[in-house]
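W.,

You were right to be curious about this one. When I first looked at the sequence I had no strong expectations either way, so I just let the prediction run and decided to look at it fresh. Below is the sequence, 362 residues in total, followed by the output.
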Amino acid sequence: MNWISKWIPQASIKTQPRFWAFEMEIDDILARGEVALHDAIKNRIQESLQLDFKEALGQQPVFDADGIATKHGRGVIAKALSAFSNSAGGILVFGVQCRKDDEKIDCASSLLPFSNYEQAHSDLNSQVGNLLQPKNSGIQVHSFASMDNPSKGYVVVVVPRSDRRPHRSEASGQKGYFKRSGASTFEMEHYDIEDAFRRTASPELELEIRFTSRMLTLGRQIIEMEFWLTNVGDVSAEFPMLHFPELQRIRYDWPAPYQFGNITMENNEKSAKYYSDADFVLHPLDSRKFAYTRFNALIDRYTSKVVSAEPNKGIPFEEELCFELKAKGMRGLSGAFDFTSVEFKDKPWENGTIVKQTRSPN
């Protein structure tokens, strides 16, 4: 029996932007138009990391009476495009007012469709390429009419998270780098900008954990794990290092990695570390086995879950295998795999638990 579990950094997951808390997709809002916006008000949808409501007119209009972006409006748009591009991507909706309701919840409160929305759509299409440096070529601009008054409507801008971060606002008087945090937009600090530039020239590694097991006696099995590294970035990864810092509950067996080539292993009762020499290089899209371990375990015959493992027989099994992953020029990442989520029974390869990304203390 065997199966597979992947740990995937969020930055490497490419998804179509989702819309609002109940995950309405952008295709749905474009198909349903104003009905979707009415639903937003009905459901008291709040602005978020990936959603920003804007009034098109008001005291400081984004667009003038002809649908052309004002100087203030270009600043508002450029700031939002920079923030979404540098963060998780997002959706910018013009024509919706966001205010605090009777319960002090800041949410979509009223619809304010505006005239010459089609001209605003056209103007935005021509402006987005000039409002960011470098350009985010994935930005899309859409619009649709109001049901009550077809001469008025709304503009929706879809901004994907960019692989060319960081992006600077090029609006007059507002040249700077921005990011989203919650429902707010902030100017990026120096270390944010430095980190973003470094990531554009850094490898991105994924850790894949493959499991197999074989029975020794009734209910007792050897659990085997292979650790594979994949470079999903655009830059070759040199000197990768995989560290398991907390090994106190289970007696792991760490065979010397002769079969992997160019990898050195150091271990004791509390930790294990694998690191490579200069001849081990992971080029973009390369995937290689990097480490291996095994341990003896008692398996529940009914649930196929690990009950206990040597040397702690009889002690309830609550083991997590923590890891830290680094490479030259790559910011360290860390995570953990929870064995209690795995069923150790005979079945074909399948997707296992996704281990969430966290930042390494380093």
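Here's what jumped out at me. Confidence is low (pLDDT under 50) at residues 1-23, 346-362. And, maybe more interesting for your project: DSSP finds five helices and 26 strands in the chain.

Coffee later to discuss?

I.
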